[in-house]
């Protein structure tokens, strides 16, 4: 049976038995065959990253907009006509826009790469009733992981048991102090991420104790994957306030230019 990965499910509000049942797993984990089927169905436990681009490509990409080229043309024309103050002002604004856009995209690009480096290289899981070390990329939902101090968490997981278990979740919550974890069931679904004492998350580190947990989300379905997705969107889709104003100004400039051209055309017709 291949278990899907319901995004955002309130696993912390379910008992350990309910979680295992919904994932089609058991306290002793999955069989190697079942794990292989789930890996094929859901893909590797890796954060997806768009095609890497060089800093120069990112910078040049800031000039692909037609509006930007209209503004550059306006600046050049102003310079040719001797309006140097206007020319410098327009070109300076265009360059500032390019620098801000470059910084935003370059930072997002590096942040996603940094998130990938935080991923655990391997994990100890129960397969066919025995503990085995497997690459973290092969972890699937329903895998039961054994963790101890010094381990990196390979997937979002619900604790089944815990002994003096503590994690540092600064990558997700910004809290630098270790958080004590328990396998208890939380009574409600609406619990902030930092207060989900029975959950552990991909990319966080175990600093004390030991525990057993069942993976409930992998790859981009994890909380870390959600952050990576937001960073990807921030680097490509969202315009800065300056970019939005430039676009608006560029549109106005286009309409004004068209109006002037139309006016000159009409005057030419009237003069014969």
By secondary-structure content and strand pairing, the structural class works out as alpha+beta
Helix content: 40-55%
Measured by DSSP, the beta-strand proportion falls in: 15-25%
How many H/I helices?
8
Kindly give the count of domains. Answer: 2
Shape: elongated
| Poorly predicted segments | 1-7
Radius of gyration: 27 Å
The strand count comes to 7
Instruction: Report the span from N to C terminus.
Output: 83 Å
CATH homologous superfamily name of the largest domain? Answer: Calcium-transporting ATPase, cytoplasmic transduction domain A
- Assigned CATH architecture of the largest domain: Distorted Sandwich
What order do the SSEs take from the amino end to the carboxyl end, as H and E?
Answer: HHHHHEEEEHEEEHH
What's the CATH first level of the largest domain? Mainly Beta
Could you describe the largest sheet, including whether it forms a barrel? Answer: 7 strands, antiparallel
- CATH fold title of the largest domain: Calcium-transporting ATPase, cytoplasmic transduction domain A
Mean pLDDT: 81
Your description of this structure?
The chain is an alpha+beta fold. The protein has two domains: 11-46 and 122-219, Calcium-transporting ATPase, cytoplasmic transduction domain A (Distorted Sandwich); 55-115 and 239-270. It is built from eight helices and seven strands; from the N terminus they run H-H-H-H-H-E-E-E-E-H-E-E-E-H-H. It has helices at 16-23, 32-42, 55-60, 66-80, 84-117, 170-173, 223-236, 241-270; strands at residues 122-127, 130-135, 144-148, 156-168, 179-180, 199-200, 205-217. Strands 1, 2, 3, 4, 5, 6 and 7 form a seven-stranded antiparallel sheet that branches. Helix 4 runs antiparallel to helix 5 (84-117), helix 4 (66-80) crosses helix 8 and helix 5 (84-117) packs antiparallel against helix 7 (223-236). The protein is elongated and about 95 Å long. The termini are far apart. Mean pLDDT is 81; it is low at 1-7.
